[in-house]
Protein 1
Amino acid sequence: MTKHLTIKETGLYLLARDNFLILTHRRPDGDTLGSAASLCRALKSVGKTAFLLANPETTPRYAPFTDGLDAPPDFSPACVVSVDTASEDLFPDNAQIYVNAVNLSIDHHPSNTGFADFSLLDAGRAACGELVLDLISEFAEVDTNIATALYVAVSTDTGCFSFDNTTADTFAVASKLASFGAPISELNRTLFRAKSRGRIAVEGLLFTNIEFHFNDHAAIVIISNAMSEQTGADEDDMDNIAALPVSIEGVEVGITIRELKNSPECKVSVRSVEGISANGICAYFGGGGHARAAGFTSSEPADVIKERLLPILAELLS
Amino acid sequence: MTKHLTIKETGLYLLARDNFLILTHRRPDGDTLGSAASLCRALKSVGKTAFLLANPETTPRYAPFTDGLDAPPDFSPACVVSVDTASEDLFPDNAQIYVNAVNLSIDHHPSNTGFADFSLLDAGRAACGELVLDLISEFAEVDTNIATALYVAVSTDTGCFSFDNTTADTFAVASKLASFGAPISELNRTLFRAKSRGRIAVEGLLFTNIEFHFNDHAAIVIISNAMSEQTGADEDDMDNIAALPVSIEGVEVGITIRELKNSPECKVSVRSVEGISANGICAYFGGGGHARAAGFTSSEPADVIKERLLPILAELLS
């Protein structure tokens, strides 16, 4: 059983300890990395020794914010803290030796399993970074670097303040972080507004080739190898394109059929709104996934896959 | 010469008067309509008679927020107020009889010409709605409807808090508006997350027709009437497309040249990154606006406008 702490208690807990190692979760996002980086910097600013455990899956997008904070190989922590991580199985492989030895979990997931000795949990926060700001404010000054990392955490977990989790508190936190010197224009540009030339080309291609079916409730797009090559797009540019068709007003199922490079196979991604099982659609083709995001691969030509999907969609959407 | 008022003075000015008519600008956006609607509701809430002058170009996206506020045909105002409008030539045709009789201009454009008898101007505000919130707070309670209209104003003028004009104050305003009951999840979904079929088609068109110049530091796109028609896009779908070219990585100036429907003119929108004056570029063509977001209209063909812009861009980007 974990012991739940208040923000004030957690501040005192940290001040009473030293030699911190901060863990982030697998496939790290802005919230886990930004929360970890800011907490690490805050602890250092009050004279503590604190490091992050290097996360091998950190992408170039977020790497600058954790730069210089990773623990040296010989570091032996006295206090292991995890941020934004709901359960032990979400830690990366190199964190496995600490999984049963997490002293403090700071998190905003309602599904947090209470795996740590102590927990600072608040499921009402849009981002873990909101909670970390309050915690840091208990014991340290929020400098520009801390504010920057926290802005990364809060802005990315709320889709630049557009997702349903955004609250008055989220905006108040963002206001404070801007006041503390977070370069919000630059961060917004990098994190949200900037699109690569390749990405622009891919979206242009997708948006001009998308087909609508069944009173526009289904949107299907085929991306052939020839089309991909024409855009000059790389894998980063293709990231999450499967989410685009279902973001169109009125669309309940969005399907992306993409010919794989140097392979006779197609990768099919299905995204759906609540009430329609993406998983169920993919099961017809031996695939699977989640209720609203699933996929499969097929060695049939893209057009044939589409023709096989249509009657399934017809039944679902009728 | 206009007389400049403080927020407090403007509050007293309004309280001392009655029978208000509020004017919005041509091709009305969320900021002008949201500012006008909230001010109108606030004046009514303290017992004043106040109406908007119906803006014939109001799109379905924003129409719900001004619903029921338009002046009856026989209304004879005693005080004419304009919001978010930098100069007289930006008023719609049905406002022409009031153009030389604007008593108070409330605006955040640095290029405001001082056309009104009195002016409440603050070019430091991301949205006119930020200023209107402070003004309304001087004399009325901010109820849910007022907060909703102001959230429309502030969120749309900042691209859901992602544009460079967003500041700590903008976030503080958004936090207040959420506290006052603005339904931010619903508004964000309607205004930012959902994309219409027409919008998808417009973005597809824009992304496939964009041209890059000067080592890709300038991006220019021409949207002809034929192209617009082919997409079936309406004015709502065209909203804020000017922000897209400059959102591409490495682009420092993004220019959208759009042929206007049923008009021989083109509307040119210029967006720039810090250090490059969009205002300055537009000044060559008799236009204006903000440092990083400005525009002009021209009766020259789109290709000719582009050819005239290129040497100006060459000099700026060299």
Protein 2
Amino acid sequence: MSEIYKDFAPLDSSKTPRFAEVATFMRTRSIPIDQAGVVDVGIVGVPFDLGTNFRPGSRFGPAGIREASRIIRSVNGHTYVAPFEIARIADLGDTPVHTVLFDESIQIITEYFRAVRENSIRPLSLGGDHTISLPILRGLVQSDPVGMIQFDAHTDTHDSARGSKINHGTPFRRAVEEGLLDPKRVVQIGLRSTISAQNEYDWARSVGMTLITMDDYESMGRTAVIEEARRIVGNGRTYLSFDIDGLDAVYCPGTGVPEPGGFSMRDALVMLRGLRGINFIGGDICEVSPYLDAAGITSMHAANLSFELLCLLAEASRDYAA
Amino acid sequence: MSEIYKDFAPLDSSKTPRFAEVATFMRTRSIPIDQAGVVDVGIVGVPFDLGTNFRPGSRFGPAGIREASRIIRSVNGHTYVAPFEIARIADLGDTPVHTVLFDESIQIITEYFRAVRENSIRPLSLGGDHTISLPILRGLVQSDPVGMIQFDAHTDTHDSARGSKINHGTPFRRAVEEGLLDPKRVVQIGLRSTISAQNEYDWARSVGMTLITMDDYESMGRTAVIEEARRIVGNGRTYLSFDIDGLDAVYCPGTGVPEPGGFSMRDALVMLRGLRGINFIGGDICEVSPYLDAAGITSMHAANLSFELLCLLAEASRDYAA
Amino acid sequence: MSEIYKDFAPLDSSKTPRFAEVATFMRTRSIPIDQAGVVDVGIVGVPFDLGTNFRPGSRFGPAGIREASRIIRSVNGHTYVAPFEIARIADLGDTPVHTVLFDESIQIITEYFRAVRENSIRPLSLGGDHTISLPILRGLVQSDPVGMIQFDAHTDTHDSARGSKINHGTPFRRAVEEGLLDPKRVVQIGLRSTISAQNEYDWARSVGMTLITMDDYESMGRTAVIEEARRIVGNGRTYLSFDIDGLDAVYCPGTGVPEPGGFSMRDALVMLRGLRGINFIGGDICEVSPYLDAAGITSMHAANLSFELLCLLAEASRDYAA
Amino acid sequence: MSEIYKDFAPLDSSKTPRFAEVATFMRTRSIPIDQAGVVDVGIVGVPFDLGTNFRPGSRFGPAGIREASRIIRSVNGHTYVAPFEIARIADLGDTPVHTVLFDESIQIITEYFRAVRENSIRPLSLGGDHTISLPILRGLVQSDPVGMIQFDAHTDTHDSARGSKINHGTPFRRAVEEGLLDPKRVVQIGLRSTISAQNEYDWARSVGMTLITMDDYESMGRTAVIEEARRIVGNGRTYLSFDIDGLDAVYCPGTGVPEPGGFSMRDALVMLRGLRGINFIGGDICEVSPYLDAAGITSMHAANLSFELLCLLAEASRDYAA
Amino acid sequence: MSEIYKDFAPLDSSKTPRFAEVATFMRTRSIPIDQAGVVDVGIVGVPFDLGTNFRPGSRFGPAGIREASRIIRSVNGHTYVAPFEIARIADLGDTPVHTVLFDESIQIITEYFRAVRENSIRPLSLGGDHTISLPILRGLVQSDPVGMIQFDAHTDTHDSARGSKINHGTPFRRAVEEGLLDPKRVVQIGLRSTISAQNEYDWARSVGMTLITMDDYESMGRTAVIEEARRIVGNGRTYLSFDIDGLDAVYCPGTGVPEPGGFSMRDALVMLRGLRGINFIGGDICEVSPYLDAAGITSMHAANLSFELLCLLAEASRDYAA
Amino acid sequence: MSEIYKDFAPLDSSKTPRFAEVATFMRTRSIPIDQAGVVDVGIVGVPFDLGTNFRPGSRFGPAGIREASRIIRSVNGHTYVAPFEIARIADLGDTPVHTVLFDESIQIITEYFRAVRENSIRPLSLGGDHTISLPILRGLVQSDPVGMIQFDAHTDTHDSARGSKINHGTPFRRAVEEGLLDPKRVVQIGLRSTISAQNEYDWARSVGMTLITMDDYESMGRTAVIEEARRIVGNGRTYLSFDIDGLDAVYCPGTGVPEPGGFSMRDALVMLRGLRGINFIGGDICEVSPYLDAAGITSMHAANLSFELLCLLAEASRDYAA
């Protein structure tokens, strides 16, 4: 391992068993944001779930995913990417949040991600409900809108919920309106579920987002979906948002609204591995609620998906200027 | 929404959050059978599990499925069918049952479904164990036998279990013998599992039922299976029975006998959506046992399947005379 | 049963098994608030948990307690009080709440309880986190402050949490400040747990509340505690608030912050039965979080406690003017 | 160990770890009833739950208790009774039952216990729901009625449930009517719970049974309760029936109707140890439903209680003629 | 059924319900090894998990699988093989193990399987962690190395773990080194997961093992994988080792290290059925940890897979000399 | 707070919500042993469970207790001790252990605690199974034997288990033999459970240990038990070992062998608070197995007990020379 990376390696499981020591993400080094100038990719928990419309609890998502990440080994078994050998990776801990005050939480999360941007760190954020993508993007995107690949059962582009403009059903509508996302460079994969109105998907399509429902996914085939996603985001700066409910419900009982009929973990892993080379500026895994889970499988899946994002972000940090 | 349907809409989640209020099915209007003359499609719980040979508990199936249905939205996200806009749909509550007396229960369930028929209601029944399909058919079928599409791991056409002629392994043998089902118009999809004898499937085939095992399913492909099912039942009056154990076991740990190697929820949803236009006179979802479940996924899947049946029954009520 | 009460009896389990039909509280009659003028005691769900500082989920408390109340029989086995024979009791459903907007929720809950008061109904509220006691009291108390008997591990009289003046740690400080509670007529029973500061209990004592810690409880003995509580609230109008975490943690794993070393369900039942004759204007059971529970015991205990409150409120409605 | 007992010892855990080998009760020798002539005390499973009015599943009670009994060591740590050194003890397996046919099950269970009696075996029966005590007593009691010590939250002396004369709410009414029990020599300990009518306990008292409610239990004190129970049954032939729901609900979440406010396992253990010297002809542990349990504690408690009964029965077999 | 097999049939579920009696594997006859001379195929539990590097508990695997096997019926529903009609099958109980002493356990397990070999029994072993395959092979393989088909997420061919040469990550490296396995006749199917080093698979390939990763599996297709496995092991003596974590994680939450992205139970069942005719000398199902499971699905899947192995071993015992 | 302690305070929950950030014990400062010279009291995880005779998994005890400690506040609500204001407290992380090699683990744990002693730190150890008390004492006790107060259902003074001299049933026999413990100054509180032989307690008594069974506990009363324990250990150096199974089983389903009939958490808390002023040199909480737990209550109880030990150790560090 290169000298500059050796201080950032996870604990060596041949010396410290995987069940031992406090679980930062993959038991990698813990560095707070104010000392993280040298970090290339930072894991950040965002324990916020006040935007949840149904079953809450994703405020415990970061803790659950970190605990489940004990068993993640340091090399990708299919792409052979070894993220800790190509980037300085640290667990930055959690963003500040307020337990009760919604607007204040959104504000301090936003400020945190401004600091992340100012430190040129590519964040891998562990949610939290999907609301968090909005303050993350507000913090990360300074000028030009970015593209996004979103894995999700729902578009999360509602306008509002009974007067609430910011909640876990609306982040990407707001992000487009605020110029954070370029809708032409946004693709949503895995859409399905019962819907509230026959025009549910109209707004997203009207602004130019590409929506790939599970019917589309099946008819196109996984390989074509990957190619389409790559084509849409192209070479520009791109964000990746993975709502765990994009997975078929059996893979994520521990989420607020599990939806049947989605793609499998095999599908998810292959799709993520198919996105190498994109200029990802950050990513998130959202909506993991450990107290709703069965035998920890949702957190375990989220930890594995997080590792795939880590590989993508590590490669992006190596290949692109921050 | 048309005037005649507006009294039958579920609670509006933008006004009443989905976690609020008592859960009738999809939080739709509750109307007892004796006031249900105007109803087109009625949800009916049948909390009966005395016919169970292994793990009991499906008497709690109706309660479990209704609770899980809180999150089901009112429009089908793939077919765009909006059942509450084309039919008057109500939750009729549960049939009477006796907690201990088997024969009396069968009798009073039968009588209940006679009233359902006399009110020209297409029932969506929530079991209960699979025994219930027999009294349902006894109540619903007055003269000519009907066809049936059955999703199931088991044929449920045993002759008897140690002297018991009516139990959850025998309903469809009885139904054929009693002239309730036309075996030539019966198709069973998803058969598999270890079996008790090498001639397990012989009787069903001998009377003309079509059996599609999982090996058949895989070799035919899902599209051909849908076509075959449509061909077999044709345009006649048809019943739909969905034993939750038709699903692969990971989708239904909360059933008496989960069986590995079955079709997925994606498969189930696509098959059900492929059955539009058939003259369904009623349907049931059976064998959901909430106390055996993991994180509520079986009830959640059953609620989603129930919604698909609701769409089929609503369309049938619009398209066919009762 | 007296004629005037017969329309308000729960379903008869000898006719409709306890596992059948939708579960209103004890499967009693459902009447919305705008038709509830004749009701003496009303069960009200308050599915609000946005004031929670640690583990959320009590928004599902009303649903959980109602489901668990299926098995509650209609007569108190120790006092022989039969509430449905002395009061018109109905399940009024849930208060409106907003899923995300905190202040709006507090406002509409308050308004709901104004209507409860205007209908001269004594409410038995099912929480929801303990924040709800504040809007309940705001709605119920029009002029003179009331007394209160509170069962709780925590005083819930904090001043604020990082700028938040209303949350589940502060309701009774606000209620005293707003003149809703007469602190001299407030007794808190069951206090214990680790605390945030050595002066944790000072404010409550400084305004005249009586605090009975578990050490006090043990040294006084249960009978003396009951007498002390009766003495403190006297004959005046009194509210009863039962935070489920007042119970020892083994009785309530399904709450946000279970605390060891509390009183048992036996203690709670005997204490509640010892409070007969007090002029209770309403009561609540808070902080039940079904998704955190083990085998449903917390909801089951809450349902039993709710029945004891129902007996107290039914007697109060008979014995005191509304 | 005496020569005559050495063939009946449980597996030696110093040689075969407690997690190894199939779990008969305490991993003791398995002998079917038709070869059990030499056995003094026989463990018998009665996997019957068709008499259940609410939550079924106690048909899995015998399997659950046996599995939990792996860890029970062979000597009583408080009385130092070593049952396997004073009696020939074997696990006789399960009685026959029918999965669906109620009356036939009652019949064949009765016949089984006739054989038990004819073999002069004192049975320790593992239920099954409380219905089973009736066919057990029918089989065991040939001529004179016997006494009974019953631990239970409910009297189980209802007359009938909607036409059903035999179910888990009625066994002891039937047993008195049939001359199997002498009600003057029956004591019920632990009664509580909400009740269906104010006269719930009248019949039992009218025929001379002694009912000790939890209020009585507390006011008398445990020692006096033991003395009272001993006084009531005296020196005559006595049966012991332990409904697991006699325990406070936290000790038995895995039962059909857990009831709060009961006695603890410490209480139960001390009471059972206080009954040494009584001429017990058999006993049962009922209403354990493993699928309703949390972390196996109900089965574990039932296994420990079963061991205490085993000690009592072993001593009785030594001290009294069969 | 042939006369010679009739003493070895499982309990008849039409006479003894599946929930009744102690659960040997499929409730078949229990015969200890020292009386098992006549047995063709023997089920053997190996409750050993001291070789586990992460989450322990597979010492309870044999008990869990046996309990789950109650529902397995005696005929294969797809191949129609009826193992109990072509082989004398018995449950031999568990091997001895030591609870704490590692080396002694390995030694006594090895000796046990020597006795299995000397009795010409083909063992179906229920683990236990994957370490057990080493002492099994040491006992079974006397002279020439055998082939092996292994289903697994991991190769289990590590050299050592911090000085430990025998643990659940190393059995097949040791087996090759000791001449128990012919690596040219070894195929591993299902490999995936994050890995510890980029050369993770090198040793296995260097000695001639065939490794089929999930990427390979998908690109080859299931049918080709079956053919390749058959080709590799050919007609020689072959062992089958099925690590339950070969399955996709949703099928086996109850294992030490569930890995996402694996094959389904449908895949597993079809692959096993595709291996008929091979000269299997024994097989194992490893790494089932019931206390980590959700709703028993892992044990249930393991029981079904065990039945498929039983069919293969029964046919092998019929078709090949021992 | 005094200047010297301010660097060692837990995270302030008014700024960082309790669900946020990685959970060291009480979210206090993490300092590895080689930088811990200034620490007075150190929390140490000992993730070792290879000495377990029945259900393993306590290797995850440290992780489980730390996660549960998020909610522990910094002041004792009954004694008002504020440990972080009187001692420098840090979470030292976990001791090294080997995942498979027993003897090596014992050796490296011993060495770790030698370093603890050499740094004059009073350790609060989180197990791990009860074996760990032996290497802890070997490390901590250099010359004169120490006294011990042990809370436990079992004496853990067996001689050996089938040749194994060190396992979780033997640590205190070894400790006495090795001169680490002065048996005259050892008291064991809470003994009960079935036992393996009638002489189970003889050895411990023969060497002078004081054994307080639950029968003794009840007859003496809790206050007298506290006084007796204080009398026995006197003013000398004393160790405190709390096996979580000392608690009644309902408080600790998540342990290897829960035993009914023990003391309550209330009892435990009061007893621990009654031990102030003793010269405790260290203490441990053992046998917490999170994967066996129900709703996390065992870990939660262990976290609360750990806080009480922390108070005792902090006071001892203030009052006694190290």
Protein 3
Amino acid sequence: MLSTIRIVLVQTFHPGNIGATARAMKTMGLSDLVLVNPRSFPDEEAERLAAGATDVLNTARVVTSLDEAVNDCVQVVGASARLRSLPLPHFDEPDDMAQSVIRNAHEAPVALVFGRERSGLTNDEIRCCTHQVSIPANPEYGILNLSQAVQILAYEVHRAWRKQAESGFTYQRPLDATPPSREQFGHFQDHLARLMQQSGFLTQPHARTEEQLQALFARAQPSRKELSLLRGLLSAFEAHLPTK
Amino acid sequence: MLSTIRIVLVQTFHPGNIGATARAMKTMGLSDLVLVNPRSFPDEEAERLAAGATDVLNTARVVTSLDEAVNDCVQVVGASARLRSLPLPHFDEPDDMAQSVIRNAHEAPVALVFGRERSGLTNDEIRCCTHQVSIPANPEYGILNLSQAVQILAYEVHRAWRKQAESGFTYQRPLDATPPSREQFGHFQDHLARLMQQSGFLTQPHARTEEQLQALFARAQPSRKELSLLRGLLSAFEAHLPTK
């Protein structure tokens, strides 16, 4: 479904922005790039800034009008820094836009359109769009670099996509972070309770103190490995305690 | 509150990334930048990429250790592409991280720490952190450009901030998008209903058709100005209708 989401750049001046856009796209699982009258493309600067995303540049389409870029799309979202007085349905929040795009992208291509670095999109180009979106920003300085704007909107689209149950997206987990079983954790708690007594820390049964320390360790959510280290530490202390 | 949120870059290789970071920060209302052993700073390339955010560069602090950069902070979030096997509390989702940061930033400075372009943060540097965050991305190509990662996390922090009632953040609205009053909209509906009859469109009272068209116009949420244009169009048609 991310494959039906298209990024369209209109008359980009700096080829570096095209390269950085390709990289931003690829990190967020997007690959369909269309360039409308780019000033200079292909270009070494684009290759350089694309880093490991030159495949996105290599499959990018170059066309001569925005119509050509989006005429097969069921939704065309124009990204602009300033609202125009041609009020299309407008998303104040990129996350609302992203949810709408993900829904529509099931059916057919959906495009996010970005204009020129200095002047954005013309009124005629806005007319090719079905929606507008702005990125809420500092009212005193709200103009993001073009490829940064692409990165944010691509990130929001990826976020809307992964929050769907059927996306199958899984978070990275470090290999040794398996939680312990309840039984293993119980052994640790018993060991700790015993040593609290044996060490003289709890001079009398003091449920509150014991509870609080146990709660701390529970909240820390030690992995299996960490629990094993803690047990080892407790045993090292235990070796020095008078046997009770 | 955004003023207590600090961005820390550790041993940045490309001064352009420092400049792009400053710009990304300013667009999201952040201004506190600290550089730990940057390879080259100040630098023309940083100035160039900062665009209108050179003030952020000018007030940036340069220090020689991460400790120095964050020792007054109550929360230090290390941004890394890969989870380390030194498992700090970890945010899978930048929005969870941002909500936590915004809560803590009421009290004292909070830092987001970014490592070297190629190798990220060292284990010693991770030890200076209280939390880790990753940006969920394409598992086949998940390494964002440094300033892009800053842009995304700054964006998420801004988003968490503006969603608070007390932020006072308001969305841009184009000047002529004031909605009409209910009375004005009622006049339009009456006018439309009258002309649906007068034109012969509704040959008999047909509540469903009239309802559907009225619903369309309600859903379009015309601004005061647009309503006025619609009334003008209706009047232009009306001039040609037989008076009933």
